[in-house]
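thread: overnight batch results

M.L. [08:02]
morning all. the overnight job finished for the chain we discussed friday. pasting input first so we're all looking at the same thing
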Amino acid sequence: MHDLNPTDVNKETDVTVDTRDDAKTTATSTTKAETTTKADAKAASKARRGKLFADLAPLIGLAVLAIAFVLVGTSSGTNMGYAVETLINQSVIIIIIATGAIFIFAMGSFDISLGASTLVAAMVAGLVHNATGSLWLMLGAAILTAVATSLISATLAAVFNLPVFVTTVAMLSVLGAVAAALVQTTGGAQIRIDRAFSREYDTLAVKLIVAAVFLALCVFLFNYTRLGRVEKLVGGNPMTAKLTGVSMKLTAIAAFGIAGLGVGLGAFLTVLRTPTLTVTSASDIGMNILVAMVFGGMVISGGPRSRIYAAIIGGISMALLNQTMSIMLQGMAGGAGIAQMVRAVLFLAVVWLAASGFRTKVLPR
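M.L. [08:03]
and the structure it wrote out:
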């Protein structure tokens, strides 16, 4: 029987200790990996819940406002047929212009000259109708004027390499001066078209046909063509868009062209709805469009979370809110101010909810 060498014993002990250490290290690594995986899964689940909430919140809000409108209207004895017609008249122009503007907002850009552009296009359309008496020439003049003003903003931004927002601020002042000059051409303080003519075409059928055709075009372009995908890519990550060969200038020009088409159609309907135009006409359209898109769930920063239906939901929601507040505050002193404060509070609440729905470390997919 041979005695064991102490050196051999020490070696065997070292091997055993090393094996145990390796096992402990492996177990620790496995535990950490499992913990990280669970944390990632929890964060991803939270992100999905936030996205679902952000997607459903505008629809829930629309349903709540619709129920409130019906309850308040019926309890106060309001003529609901007339109230619904007023609701459509209030919302259709905002929906059309906002739907076209979504192509700009999807890029992460911002246009505050939409109201002024609508006014100028409506004035030119009114002057053309007074000179020719033609409905189609009036429509063509409104569209051409609006598209031209929109393309000027995009072209200036492209040529001088300026942010689009800056050029739209400049265009706001320019268009205001143009509107004042157009009014002066009539020798008075307003541009007026024949009221009998406007009443003939200021019908729900005309409004709905114009809106349906334009909305169908925008939905197709935004959801099913390369243009829509590029718009959202530019808004989500401009650098990636550049590296993939996207022309930022052409993309901006295309977005502003579509927005100009929406402004032209909105201006055409504005002339029919309000045959007497002054420099203050359509002054609140720009802000109403922004509020409507936010109410509809549009992410102002643009990107892949942009939705074309935001303008439709938001426009109807805003009209429902306005009508409900008008019925509730009818005859009340300071009712208009109270309605403005309510809209402001709801606007801030919607923005906060939309932002909180995506406060997560996981990138949106």
